Amino acid sequence: MPDAAMSDVVVDGNVLRVEALSVAYPSRDGWLHAVDGVSLSIAPGTVLGLVGESGSGKSTVVLALLGLLGSSARLRAERLEFDGHDLLREAAALRGRRIGVVFQDSAATLNPALTVGTQVVEPMRVHLGTKRALAWQRGIELLAEMGIPRPAEIMRSYPHQLSGGMKQRVGIAAALASEPDLLLLDEPTTALDVTIEAQILSLLDRLRTMRLEGGRRLAMLLVSHNLGIVDRLCDSVSVLYAGRLVESGTTANVLQRPLHPYSKGLLAALPRVDRQHAGRLAPIPGRLPDLWAPDPGCNFRPRCAFASAGCEQPQRVTGDHHKVRCHRADTIVDIPWPIERATAAAQPRSAVPLVEAADLSIRFDSGGWLQRLLGESAGILAVDRVSLTIHSGEVLGLVGESGCGKSTLGRLLLRLLPALDGTLSFAAEPVRAKPDARFRRQAQVVFQNSDTSLNPRQTVGEILGRAIRWFAIANVEAEVMVEVGRLLDLVRLPRSYARRYPHQLSGGEKQRVGIARALAPRPRFVVCDEAVSALDVSVQAAVLNLLRDLRDQLGVAYLFISHDIGVIAHIADRIAVMYRGTIVEEGLADDVLRPPYHPYTELLLSSVPLIGRQRDTDPPPAARPPAAGGCKFADRCRFRLGPLCDSVPPPLQAAGPGHRIRCHIPLPQLAGQPHWLDRGETT
Description:
This protein has 683 residues and is an alpha/beta fold. The protein has 4 domains: 1-98 and 180-341, P-loop containing nucleotide triphosphate hydrolases (Rossmann fold, 3-Layer(aba) Sandwich); 111-174, no CATH class; 353-575, 3-Layer(aba) Sandwich (Rossmann fold), CATH 3.40.50.300; 594-682, no CATH class. Helix content is 31%, strand content 22%. The chain contains 25 helices and 27 strands. The strands form 5 sheets. An 8-stranded mixed beta sheet has the order 7-8-9-3-10-11-13-12, with helices on both faces. Strand 25 and strand 26 form a beta hairpin. The chain starts with 15 loop residues before the first strand and ends with a strand. Residues 1-12 have low confidence and may be disordered.
């Protein structure tokens, strides 16, 4: 409901002032109230973070500011003002010129048929009337300011020729080309690696300190569910739940001493690399409330661990600089969100490896058919002589940047791709290039995107039943349905969900169905390929807890692939760090996360945004292709030893029991480096 009290944060000089913004969409069930009385403001040169789960209304706020809600939406606001202009009437005229926007998926927002230069130049040509030659030169300068190497060459390239991080930088350059006063950032780093994310955050931090024409300073609205990057970049934070603003204040106040139970729940659900194996995560139970019939009281109370009498009444906003919509805020301020207790008993782990790979390699062809025919295409060595073992009931975390070969290695271990070299054994038996049905039954996979891996035309029962019949777990229909019920119980979904279709499930529920399908043949080994990277922090916590419980209950072994080191540190027993197709470090999680570690491991760790710590690391990009035979990380290594690293393969050094580092640098020198946590300053 509209609440003028939240607008008290508005002060003179704010470039954006929003008061009591409400948005509703028509549907067959009535009006869906996506945003309900939201108020916020942003001053020049500052960054406001807008956080909350998917469905909280964050992106709807952005679309309302841009005037892109569509004619069917119902928008109301006491004030929706940008630098004295009424956005209810003038949003289209300001959009692109004075209000820029960067969306989450740069690959979808860039036109694949146009060069990068054409798309960066267009805003200057349309909004500023800049002549083509001057606009082109300014485009080169913008790309250089974004930290893109060879900007003149990139201007003539097409989006598909760029990496994900470079495409996102191009999107930021295009948004800044018309010299806006306000930049809206809708999940700009969600799909990026931690090192690319750190580069983008450093870039945005520099941009907000730059003076624009006339001495103006750029203001930003950052929409994200990643609390680490919000802490890294934002001056203030507003927490949105089911369309309502429940807490707002300075970043330090909200993230380090949250007042609202929902904020406490989000922070408790966050896996943190500086607190590895700190026990179970604390997911927020339940789902978002019915937005067709807004609750006049606290709409978070069905999920709240601190709900009591009075929560059913409309909640008044209290506080001056740190505002909260909760009548119990003062009572619960120092009480942490409760953590769910583990109930499963761990299975004993065998000393004999379940999965054992030796010198696995695979090369992908590149170039055209003529180059391959003439033998002029060497191809790309995606996985280069990788050896690893995984025991029953063990979680091996595989971490590294996109393109390093993590997913390819996972597919090699499942024999979904043919290995160029190397051997693979499962339960001490060799696995052939074309494995039998027994191996297929015992080795399964959970994919990242449940939307594309589940058949939208089949119910959950049909999806699970097909896997049950395929592997002959049961054939009689009654037995199949009993098994479907067992699987739904395992992943903690109601048995009634067997009648639902994927589009009727939330993201976390769909991922649970994907896990249930992988467990249908009762496997002993599961590859989790970025299985939680697309989920909100609370849903992610619930799925991670579920995977750990299933490991303990069933003795399943996981290869857990992720670029999120916080997730890896929480769930993995051992960690393998992969770079350009090679395992550069492997060992127990506690050993890999403290010195000595490979310089690349240190780079990954020091790039992670941590709540309460300011990181000053700006990770170096790859400068040149690795020299044949040398260390593949030499071009980015700050400890590089010169010709030795460039030309000689690095040795595998034993840093401790089961802890191996592939590096020329002596172990005493690596051990003498400060802990990566000490490279940031506590705020």
